[in-house]
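Review form for a predicted model. The reviewer records the input and the model, then writes brief findings.
Reviewer: anonymous (R2)
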Amino acid sequence: MIDLDDTDRAILRELVADGTLSAGELGRRLGLSQPAAWRRVRRLEEAGVLKGRAVEVDREKLGFGVTVFLGVKLATKGRVSLEDFERAVQAIPEVQVVQHVLGLFDYRLRVVARDIADFERVLRRRIMTLPGVGNVEANVLLTEERRPGPLGVAETAANP
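Model under review:
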């Protein structure tokens, strides 16, 4: 684990909000020179704290207006290997995230579809036919908010 100071946490907050910021802009926002901001970002990358900068795609503008979280319980763990299920589910383009979880279900999937009818087609023709699928529970996403997460907690703990 790397020790983070207030400036490191501020850099992370800025980059989480906008991963396209240049070192110069980051420096201007935080009162650092461009080389100092670049060195700090580089140090965070080398330590593995920053794993890359993602581009956020607006799924609705691409025609995918429905997001569904599926809990999937495999029917019998002995008959189908987890790897077989994972390999098959990852081949479905509508499945955006595959998470192997502990609890009531074996997997949690994030599935996008154009509408509910399209989701039903994906569920019936693709997901329910995967090797080993037993019980499935669907939760349709209504709204989504982004929270600062651990960075916000660390900041609050450091600055009561």
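Findings: Helices lie at 6-17, 23-30, 34-46, 82-89, 116-127, 150-158.
Further findings: Strands lie at 66-74, 95-100, 107-113, 133-140.
Recommendation: see findings above.
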